[in-house]
Design the sequence.
């Protein structure tokens, strides 16, 4: 019986250890550059071409791109928008939603397929009928556009955590074995 219990403890310990050390994906904001409150942006439309931003998301998979912008005076407005979004030079597609936020518009592109660890984001409004500006992170900043990359982040536990878990399970097994062996000793009868 004690061998069966010891085998069960070992098996459970190995399964828990293997499950614990596997990479786990978590929904996360991978990179966030929030916009300045006042409209101040970098023109990114048919007259200027696309604007690119370096990004670093590590092992994250981008599933959603959020950015802010506004139309200039020489624009036909949101009805003429034709955005193109690139991750690492490849155009991505998905479902685009635009919602007003004060003087800005917040654009959310839910990608149809996740993109793993991109290093560059480029956006432009390809319509010839709009004058469009990608909102900056600060008034006067002509180099950093505001955007957020959301998706999944792979998390691998530290090796020391797994070792600590294994040591604890081994200690439980040793303690159980010691108790079982101690319980099998023949009781001694005191003689007078």
Sequence:
């Amino acid at each position: 019986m004690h061998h069966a219990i010891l085998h069960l403890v070992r098996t459970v310990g190995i399964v828990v250890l293997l499950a614990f050390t596997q990479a786990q994906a978590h929904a996360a904001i991978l990179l966030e550059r929030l916009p300045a409150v006042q409209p101040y942006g970098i023109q990114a439309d048919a007259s200027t071409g696309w604007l690119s931003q370096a990004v670093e998301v590590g092992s994250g998979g981008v599933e959603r791109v959020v950015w802010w912008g506004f139309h200039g005076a020489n624009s036909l407005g949101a009805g003429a928008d034709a955005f193109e979004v690139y991750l690492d030079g490849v155009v991505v597609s998905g479902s685009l939603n635009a919602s007003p936020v004060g003087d800005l518009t917040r654009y959310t592109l839910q990608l149809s397929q996740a993109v793993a660890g991109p290093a560059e984001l480029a956006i432009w409004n390809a319509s010839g009928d709009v004058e469009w500006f990608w909102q900056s992170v600060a008034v006067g900043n002509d180099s950093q556009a505001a955007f957020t990359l959301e998706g999944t982040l792979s998390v691998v536990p530290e090796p020391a955590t797994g070792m600590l878990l294994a040591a604890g399970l081994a200690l439980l097994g040793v303690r159980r074995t010691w108790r079982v062996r101690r319980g099998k000793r023949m009781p001694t009868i005191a003689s007078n």
Notes: Residues 2-22+157-171 form one domain. The helical segments are 2-21, 159-183. The chain has a mean pLDDT of 82.
